[in-house]
Amino acid sequence: MTKFKLPAASFSEEFQRIFANTGWLFADRILRMGVGLFVFTLVARYLGVEQFGMYSFATAFVGLFSTLATMGLPSLVVKSLTHEPERQNEILGTTFCLQLLGGIGSLVLSLLAVLLFRNHDPLTVSLVAILASAGIFHAFDTIDIWYQSQVKSKYTVIAKNTAFIIFAVVKLTLIHFQAPLLAFAGATIAEVLAGAMGLVISYQVLGYSLWRWRWDFSVARELLQQSWPLILSGFTIMIYMKTDQVMLGEMIGDDAVGLYSAATRISEVWYFIPTAIVSSVAPSIYQAKREGNELAYYQKISKLLKFLNTVAIMIAIPMTFLSGSLIDLLFGPEFSGSSAILSIHIWAALFVFMGVASSPWFIAEDLTSFSFYRTLLGAIANMLLNFLLIPRYAGEGAAVATVISYGVGSVFANGLSVKTRDFFFLQVKSIFPMS
Hints:
The protein is built from 17 helices and no strands. It is mainly alpha-helical.
């Protein structure tokens, strides 16, 4: 195999763009991790375990249908914009329309589902109706997809963090004035709307215009042909990310959901790391694949896997031992039952990081249909394990089910197919960073 070498200047420019873009994404998530966690804990303390559990149940319920709002398009559209920049207005316009329709569909399905399960609980129904409305405004994240394709995520960071800071203050004000639960849901949807407006303003300021976007049936057909496995895959991912909270609420009660949500918020706050890194690195992986440079292509993927696995382990080990002190410090003694859940759930990060790092490979290899099958296995494993473990172990059982099912969906399922088995061995090898 002939070794392909990028010119030094080209490599330096690419690295600088990726590094700068990743820096902006990290700044975004670190701000949200710090300020967001601070506000989150104050809201949880104010609402108490039961009301906080009810809010978390509604959030998880909406999350089950949230994939429909994105239509599985973001990663595919980044790839399309990278390969066909001359069609950007048709691609962006079509993506916006598809995601708008998906957001409306997500809202309708969320309402129908919650009325089926909790028609006797008008407060939960109202919470779901408000929170599910966010899917409509997420159509404007089409602008964020454009920024990702150009490795210019700083504009998304500025727009969305402006809204985030404003409504963090609003939530603190609501606590001060002892506002009801529904007011916090209203603040959440208002933040999403403000973030969407910020994206539109930044796009216009940079000299672009939404009015140039065009619907193109052929583009829609191409995107949907590729995205339907990702839609199904995303739906199954949401099942095994959110079904634990929904099942806890139905099988144990909202108190159990409150304890579990406090633990998972700390555990999942780290998930921004792989998302930020992969969104910046993915365009260069697609480019290496497009150029037929297999050596550089697999080197990039291997390094990405090893790096993210190392980070996940470095997070999980100390969090396991510090969970009790951390829960008590952040949430208070009322949430002490969350510490055991956190010490278990934190290990799901290893498989989450590995799964996110795998996404560019599946897209570049046109194996998105396999994403559905492997996440379906993970979702089935999650539901079965939750049925077995929640009645006896409550939140701790749900945490065990989550870790195992994430491992099934992100890694072990890849060993079942000839087309993905080599990648499975690459994933397993990447767990040992010195190899």
